[in-house]
Amino acid sequence: MAEEEPGKLEALRQEVRAWLKESLPEGWGSPGYVAPERGSKEAHELGKAWQKKLYDAGYTGFGIPTEYGGVERPREEVAVIREELQRTGTPPPAGSLGPMIVIPTLLRYGNEEQKKRFIPKILNAEESWCECFSEPDAGSDLANIQKTGVRDGDEWIVNGQSVWTSGSKYADWGVVPVKTDLNAPRHRNLSYFVFDCTSPGFEVRPLKQMTGDAEFSETFFDNVRIPHANMIGEEGQGWYVAMATLEAERGGGIQFVAPSRRLEPTTLGGVDIYVELAKNTKRRGRIVWDDPLFRQRIAQFAIENEAMKHSRERMRVKAMKRQLTGNEQSIGSIFSREKNQRQANMVAEIMGANIQFMRGDPRALDDGSWTYTFLRTRGNTIETGTTEILRGIIAERMLGLPRSRG
Amino acid sequence: MAIEYGLNEEQEMLKTMARDFLANECPTTRVRQLMEDDTGFDADLWKKMAEVGWLGLVLPEEYGGSGMNFRDLTILCEEMGRTVLPGPFISTLLLVGVPLLAYGTEEQKSEILPKIASGEAVCTLAALEEDGDWWADSINLRADYRGGHYVINGTKLFVPDAKVADYMLIAARTKRTANPEEGITLFLLDTREVFGTMSTVLKTMDETRKLYEVVFLNVPIPAQNILGEVHQGWPIMKQIALHTAAALCAEMVGAGEKVLEMTVDYLKERIAFGVPIGSFQALQHRAADLVIGLEYSRSLMEWAAEAIKENHPDTATAVAMAKSFCGDTCKKVVAEGIQMHGGIGFTWDHDMHLYFKRVWADDNAFGDSNYQREVVAKALDEIHQLSGGGRWMKTSGRLTPMG
User: Fold this and answer.
1) What is the C-alpha separation between A86 and A304, in angstroms, rounded?
2) Mean pLDDT across the stretch B306-334?
3) Whether residue A269 is found in the same domain as residue A241
4) How many domains does chain A have?
5) In chain A, what is the greatest distance between 2 CA atoms, to the nearest angstrom?
6) Which of A152, A221, A250, B279 could form a disulfide with A333 if both were Cys (CB 3.0 to 4.6 A apart)?
């Protein structure tokens, strides 16, 4: 690969900075700025508008073929753009499920028509997506999906229920694996559909989680009609399509998502925010940063963030050499999710009694976002496959250990 | 050039060749024989290592070396870690060869480097003293100036491979000021020519790497045998520590990966309660944790080696991060290796303890994981001060904990 001349990259960096100055929402990042409430329609619209702006500017959509609306740029330029977005901190993109999981699934299993119909509108944020995977009795045991689909001419009539549906509140479209063959064995009885969320019979009920927010929903399918043309992959292949979605969700799809603040390390180690917190917090009269126990823990996170960065690069090189099986994503998935939790625990221990304050209390630091993160990260090690399931994948598929279940 | 991840074709070849060579020349049965010896030195093996070009791997061709880079060197170190190879490879090449190339006079280099590459000269560094810690304050070995030459008196401890060393680099105190990093001088001693040193092997845990007490009694060293400048030895020692720490990371990762492989094999073979124990989730998940730890150890180790190779401005932090993480992780891997092997892993005859002891020794050498983490914390502090700090709090809510 030809080396980019440094001047060109520097010019791009200045261009992105200038663009950010002009394009970020009014007052963003300034002391008086109050972000719309998490999970509100307003927050969703803000995120959508931001994703569209990014896409129109050519700052997202990398790695996707241009015929589906993707944006082609040399890797060095993409790195500069990402660095600048992260450095500044941007609104979280709304409907990140579309770019993160739906696009990779469509690219792998969708037909030409489906790819052309759906991918561009995901990239420009015109359509948001939800994921109807888990059921009350099919969480870690996803193959136990009980939703049924019965063929009726050019359509399938779908009945059943999902739980922990992500992104459903404002979604325009959804993905759902459905049992279409009652007699076939596990893993061969499912088909995978995309469906219009305005379809009659589809109902969304918010599900309040331990943070107090309703980020997820329960969703109900009561004779929902889905056109046969909306099946992704072959009939009976749904398990494998669903696995592609999960693989993307566990790590592979991240590359398509425009980064926002705190998702990725920014400066060396990416822990400046914790250093800042520790230096500005006193416990019993002593500055937390001066306590070697906390300082060591913060340094450890810097080390781990740096390790993750270089591991991603290693994986990228391996992927180019076609040395990856997909199971490797479990490594990063487990490590990063558990790290999130450990970081949040540390913050809670630094803040002491102040971690109690949630959004709404005037004493809450950063509008309660630390407390929110502390609670929200409990879900990190469960969603998209518990870390136990992922450890099983490493043990059985990477190390070749004998199956632990019959 | 740039930071490269993974191995290129030549490096793959080097790795395969090294693995085959060491499997043939020094399997652990041979390691155990060398453990019985006071020097742990196999002259035939050393000669063969010279013949395949390892001893001059990173030395330029003009000194008889192969002119390869630091990342190539760590590939060898990984493979040596896999076989817990005894002998003075790291002592000779990293503790003396590499710093000599960087800081030596032309005379010093042309005298010693070709002998290193050809296998004629074994070298080592006498740095640590009785507290065993790598820090400037502990260096008290006296070197007194006596018109044209220095006279060294005192004792060094934890000196690797002292008995077989033809050249010994000695860190001595030539001046004591308030700043302990000032006044350390490095001397090159030709042990075959000068009398007055006595090396006694220490009874130590890791018998695959022999350590010695070295007593110096009125040892005269000419002033032209100083490496670098008088009183200015510590910056050179920091550089030695940086390179050697990165090499030890490679050795630990090699050892850790080998232990994981042995453990996974055992989990598949060992039957208990009528099934292979590898089908127990409790063990599967622990094995998976080792995979995770080793992936990130390798990532940081490769980054540190590449940083050295490329003379990257973040090299010092990269090495500290790698040493801290590889140390923590590989200590865990070798402990888990023993646990998952059960009783057999606790026996002398099983090789697990060789890896356990080597990894703990490697972790400690040149700053253990806790020390290295503190190095990272200091770097974070500097960066924070440089960036001005305060950015996050200014954009935040109403509570400012500082009041």
Assistant:
1) 18
2) 96
3) no
4) 3
5) 74
6) A250
Give the pLDDT band (50/70/90) at residue B388: low
**Model confidence band, residue B389 (pLDDT cutoffs 50, 70, 90):** low
Partner A contacted by B393 (CB < 8 A):
yes
Is-catalytic flag, A67? no
Query: In B, residues 3-22, which contact A (CB 8 Å cutoff)?
Result: 3, 5-6
Which letter, b or e, does each residue of B322-335 get, where b requires 16 or more Cβ atoms within 10 Å of its Cβ?
bbbbbbbbbbbbbb
Kindly state whether residues A394 and A273 are assigned to the same domain.
yes
Note whether A273 contacts B392, CB cutoff 8 Å.
Answer: yes
Rounded mean pLDDT of B142-149?
Answer: 94
Q: Could you please report the per-residue DSSP string of A358-396?
A: -TTSTT-GGGGHHHHHHHHHHHHTTTTS-HHHHHHHIII
pTM, rounded to two decimals: 0.89
Test A298 with B380 for CB contact under 8 angstroms.
yes
For residues A73 and A8, the answer to whether their CB atoms sit within 8 Å is no
The helix or strand, by DSSP H or E, that contains position B378, with its residue range, turns out to be: helix B369-386
Q: Which residue of B has its CA nearest to A29?
A: B395
Q: Using one digit for the tens of pLDDT, what is the confidence trace for B10-29?
A: 999 999 999 999 999 999 99
List Cβ neighbours of B85 (8 Å cut-off, separation of 6 or more): B22, B26, B31, B208
At A5, is the pLDDT very low, low, confident or very high (cuts 50, 70, 90)? Answer: low
Among residues A220, A248, A276, which one ends one of the domains?
A248
Distance from the first to the final alpha carbon of chain B: 50
* Mean model confidence pLDDT for chain B: 94
Instruction: Check residue B198 and give its pLDDT.
Output: 96
Q: Per-residue pLDDT for A2 more than 50? A: no
Shortest CB distance from B324 goes to which of A282, A303, A399?
A303
Mean per-residue pLDDT, A232-259:
76
Taking only residues 341 to 370 of chain B, the set having a beta carbon closer than 8 angstroms to any beta carbon of chain A reads: 370
Answer whether residue A33 shows pLDDT above 90. Answer: no
CA distance A157 to A165: 20
Chain B interface includes A365 (CB < 8 A) = yes
Q: Which domain holds residue A142?
A: 129-248
Asked whether residue A108 is assigned to any structural domain, the reply reads no
C-alpha span between B223 and B230 (Å, rounded):
9
Is residue B52 a contact partner of residue B21, using CB atoms and an 8 Å limit?
yes
Kindly report the CATH number assigned to the domain that includes residue A59.
Answer: 1.10.540
- Contact predicate B15/B79, CB 8 Å: yes
A270 and A218 share a domain?
no
Interface of B with A in 242-281 (CB under 8 A): 264, 267-268, 275-276, 278-281
A357 and A329 belong to one structural domain: yes
Distance of CA B271 to the CA centre of its chain: 38
Q: What is the mean pLDDT of chain A?
A: 88
pLDDT score, position A39: 79
Question: What DSSP element (H or E) covers A193?
Answer: strand A190-196
In chain B, the domains with their CATH numbers are: 9-121 (1.10.540.10), 125-234 (2.40.110.10), 235-386 (1.20.140.10)
Nearest chain A residue to B307, by CA = A310
Residues of A in contact with B393 (CB under 8 A): 276, 280
Please tell me whether residues A293 and A376 are part of one structural domain.
yes
The ipTM is: 0.93
